[in-house]
């Protein structure tokens, strides 16, 4: 009997559970379908859209394409040491921060209870995304610490 198993730790930690694969596939489909529908809506408008609307549509299409690309890349290469969770948390933090900035801009230019409530909710999503990022980085660090043969 050997002291080491016949497979490296990278091979054991590389796989995705069925639940994670399904969730990634759903995130990718949602992002891709959302981006495609917004792009089709944008391209089929009979009159030119105002600049702010074009910027918003472009941003939302970029968000959808980013999530679809993330999901496709993760499913294709299989994540290693929770790097996929860190990437997803960064995407969530970036997109929620951008949404919060836009919500805050609307709340400042057009003060109303609805705009204020949307800003408060958006700030909550930024906090949640930041918490997810911190947890994902800690999980990745723990897995990497298990790998090193100190």
Describe the structure.
The protein is mostly helical and 150 residues long. It has 2 domains: 17-68; 79-150. 80% of the residues lie in helices and 0% in strands. It contains 5 helices and no strands. It has helices at 9-13, 18-43, 51-77, 83-109, 113-147. Helix 2 runs antiparallel to helix 3, helix 3 (51-77) runs antiparallel to helix 4 (83-109) and helix 4 (83-109) runs antiparallel to helix 5. The longest helix has 35 residues, at 113-147. The radius of gyration is 20 Å and the shape is flat. The model has no long low-confidence stretch (mean pLDDT 87).
Q: What layout of secondary structure does this protein have?
A:
Elements: H1 9-13, H2 18-43, H3 51-77, H4 83-109, H5 113-147
| Count of DSSP strands | 0
Number of domains: 2
Poorly predicted parts: none
Helix content: over 70%
Number of helices: 5
Amino- and carboxy-terminal Cα gap: 24 Å
The main sheet comes to:
none
Order of helices and strands: HHHHH
Report the β-strand fraction as a percent range: under 5%
Overall SS class: mainly alpha
Mean pLDDT: 87
**Rounded radius of gyration (Å):** 20 Å
Global morphology: flat
């Amino acid at each position: 009997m050997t002291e080491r198993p016949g497979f490296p730790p990278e091979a054991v930690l590389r796989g995705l559970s069925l639940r994670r694969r399904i969730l990634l596939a759903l995130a990718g489909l949602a992002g891709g379908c959302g981006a495609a529908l917004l792009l089709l809506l944008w391209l089929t408008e009979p009159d030119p859209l105002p600049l702010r609307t074009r910027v918003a549509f472009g941003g939302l299409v970029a968000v959808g394409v980013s999530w679809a690309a993330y999901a496709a890349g993760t499913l294709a290469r299989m994540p290693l040491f929770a790097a996929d969770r860190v990437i997803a948390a960064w995407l969530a933090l970036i997109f929620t921060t951008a949404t919060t900035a836009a919500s805050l801009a609307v709340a400042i230019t057009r003060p109303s209870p609805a705009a204020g409530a949307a800003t408060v909710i958006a700030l909550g999503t930024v906090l949640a995304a930041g918490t997810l990022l911190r947890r994902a980085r800690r999980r990745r660090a723990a897995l990497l610490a298990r790998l090193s043969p100190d």
